Structure formats: structure tokens, C-alpha cells
Amino acid sequence: MSHFSEATILKLLPYLQADQYWQSPIEGISIYMSQHPTTATTYMQMPSLCLVLQGEKTVQFGNQIMTYDQDRYMCYGMALPITAHITKASTDKPYIGLMMQLNQQLLLETMMQMQSESTSAPAAYFISALESPLANALQRLIDLVDRPADIAFMAPLLEREIYYLLMSSPQGNILKQLATQDSHSQQIAEATTWMQQHFSEAVEMETLATQVGMSISSFYQHFKRLTEMSPLQYQKSLRLLEARRKIKLRSANITHIASEVGYDSPSQFSREYKRYFEVSPKQDWLTAV
Questions:
Q1: Domain end position, chosen among 155, 176, 197
Q2: Across-strand partners of 51?
Q3: Could you tell me where the beta strands, DSSP code E, fall in the chain?
Q4: Residue 277: which residues within 8 A CB-CB, separation 6 or more?
Q5: Do 70 and 112 fall within a single domain?
């Protein structure tokens, strides 16, 4: 049974267009609508709380496959490349998904006010049942959409309540670790942020490990545990996802794009691109709009 009423869906529908994100007037809140199931797409999911107001979605990290709907939500503590597709949607009952970006500073402030300890986190993401207190707070945040005069005052209060409920949940330790200075999770998050900003550059992982204050063995171990991939696989994902974005825009020719994202060899780029997306760069180029 959905935690979100039909009235909530009807309230949002006038703002939404099929297969597009709507950036709501509440900072950090965006809503996506689709009237049909979609094919699997790989993209970089930024740190966020993701929930389904109507429909169903499946996401995959490596060998992990998770499906969530109105009764469950996904939470991503750091930027992760995921493969996802909408599995339930129709014209009568379109898929409606909400994404709330996570603010690292607010996570830290909330944890400090909670004065709670955290232990090692098993991953940088989790799926969880959507309990009534969290659903109610999210409902009140959504209700601000048609009360714009209240957003500036009410939204920060509701966001803090939502962060508290996330961090108080059985899996909230994952977020606590990311907000804990010098924890392994925080160090790996710092590394992934640096890699996002410098993905096209050649980087020695030993240097990056030292930069975030870890030994190379600990760096590899905790990176794999938190992200389901090695640091080199993460860097490759960043490069290929950016390359695909540029190819879809036809911002330059394929060889130039390969060079822009850090590939010296066009043939290696083509091989890795096809292995990652199951389609060649040229095929994507030809179908780009």
C-alpha cells in the first residue's frame, strides 16, 4: 500500500512531463515521470535519497540487484555508477520517482546533534522499508510545492527531520560513517569526489590513497567494499559515462571525445565503450538526436 495519497500524485502531475526531470522549487528535490517501462540505462547516481511515489524501479550494482516501489526507498551515500530501469509504469498510472540530493554538511550537523557513535559501514548505499515517520516527513516536504511562500522557512526544518530519521534507521550507520571525519567511508567518499573532478587525468592510486590518508591495501579493500568496484573500474565508469554524454550531444568527433575523457588509444576506447554499454560509440553517435 502506498504511503503517498492519490491527491499527492494529482498535485504533482501538472508540473511533470513524460521522460523528464522536473526541478521543484524546493532546492535539491527533483521528480521524474515516465508513462512506460524503460530499458536499462547506466548513469552516475549522485548522493541522494530516492523514492517511488508510484510505479517500480530496479537498480543494479555489480551482482547486486534491488527493486523498490512505494514501500521501499534507496539511499546513496556517495556518487555511484548504477544501471537502472523502470519496471512498472503506464499511461493511467505513470511512474513517478522523487530524488532528494544529500547535503554532506547537513549530514554532519545532524549527526553531531544526535551525539551517536557509528561503526564500520558495509556499503555506500542501502535499500530500506519506508516507515510511516519518514513517509510523513517526505509528504510534508512535497506539500510545500504549492506553498512557495513557506519553502524558505519550512524546507530546511523538514530536511533536517528527514536526515535524522534516515540516520536513526537500522541502516543509518552508512550515512553516519560518511559524516564521520577520517572514517574509511569518509576517506573513500573524498577519493571518489576527487576522481569525479579529475577523471580524465592519469592518476597513481597509491598517490590518491596517501592523499586521503590511507594505506594502499586499505584503500583498495574499503573502496571495493563500499562501491562494489575497484578504483580503476570506478575511474573507467566516470570516463565512459562522460564520453557517452558527449557522444549523445555530438559535441565533437568520437576520437576527440575519447581523448577528452582520458583515452590515448581510440581502439581501446571503442572496445571498453562497447563492453560497458553493449553498443559501439559509432552506433550511439548515429542514433544521437
A1: 176
A2: 73, 98
A3: 20-23, 29-34, 41-45, 48-54, 56-61, 64-68, 72-76, 80-88, 95-101, 125-129
A4: 42, 240, 244, 284
A5: yes
Distance CA 83, CA 288 (A): 20
Q: How far apart are CA 70 and CA 50, in angstroms?
A: 11
The three grid cell numbers given for residue 58, joined into one nine-digit string:
530496479
| Residue ending a domain, choose from 148, 176, 204 | 176
Q: What is the pLDDT of residue 113?
A: 86
Residues 136 and 34 in one domain: yes
Q: Which residues of the chain have pLDDT under 70?
A: 1, 116-120, 289
pLDDT of residue 231: 96
At 247 the pLDDT is 95
Q: Domain limits at 135?
A: 6-176
CA neighbours within 13 Å on the CB side: how many for 67?
Answer: 5
Let me know whether 156 and 212 are in one domain.
no
Task: Report the domain count for the chain.
Answer: 2
Whether pTM > 0.85 for this model: the answer is yes
